[in-house]
Amino acid sequence: MNKIEGRTALVTGGSRGIGRAVALRLAEDGADVVLTYEHETERAAAVVDQIKEIGRRAVAVQADSADVAAVTAAVDEAAATFGRLDILVNNAGVFVVGPIEDLGPAEFDRTVAVNVRAPFMASRAAARHMTEGGRIISVGSNVGERTVFPGFTLYALSKTALIGMTKGLARDLGPRGITANLVNPGPTDTDANPADNPNADAIRSFTALGRYATPDEIAATVAHLAGDGGRYITGATINVDGGFTI
């Protein structure tokens, strides 16, 4: 069993999609959960209610991941709310794609602020609260390793940066018994990339399994890394992509 009874997890962007699935899975495995959201108050509240129905404690914290102060405050609030912080899942992200000519400084700054700076700052803040056994898990993307469509330069840049961040965190925090890992989902059936979108058949064709993942399948790998089964895995990038990158 990969239980995490009595631990506290913070999941950024936990109101929908992969973040929601991760928050619920960690609660099912025994963690109390704090989740952040930007705008979708009702969705965040619904996830909190579901976690409470599971029998765990949960709160939702409004935070714009582009705001350094808000990110840091959310981490500190998570630790203060339940008296500890054991697991950080850097899941919140923005998906900005388009021809390179159309992606200017505003798009660059927003993408890097949310997809790179926020995970870095959240990890930095979490490290102050974590003790031995702490887990930092970031959610990247398969396009960090294989970019098959045009228009993904900026998004791929931001997700590839997480590979280096994860390796550095693993080296810095390993002596304290804290692990850091990166999960790269492939095509996953979410609001941002539904399995019935006009390009879905083409996207599926790049996977070995010929299908989209469910958010629960991504959450299962995150939960493994968060639990005892992941205690000797650090600095790793794990592709949960149905064979997209092979």
UniProtKB/TrEMBL annotation:
GO terms for molecular function: oxidoreductase activity. InterPro entries: KR_dom, NAD(P)-bd_dom_sf, SDR_fam. Residues 7-206 form the Ketoreductase domain. Keywords: Oxidoreductase. It holds the Pfam family adh_short_C2. SUPFAM superfamilies: NAD(P)-binding Rossmann-fold domains (SSF51735). It is an enzyme of class 1 (oxidoreductase). Its EC number is 1.1.1.-. Belongs to the short-chain dehydrogenases/reductases (SDR) family. This is SDR family NAD(P)-dependent oxidoreductase. It comes from Sphaerisporangium corydalis. The lineage of its organism: Bacteria, Bacillati, Actinomycetota, Actinomycetes, Streptosporangiales.
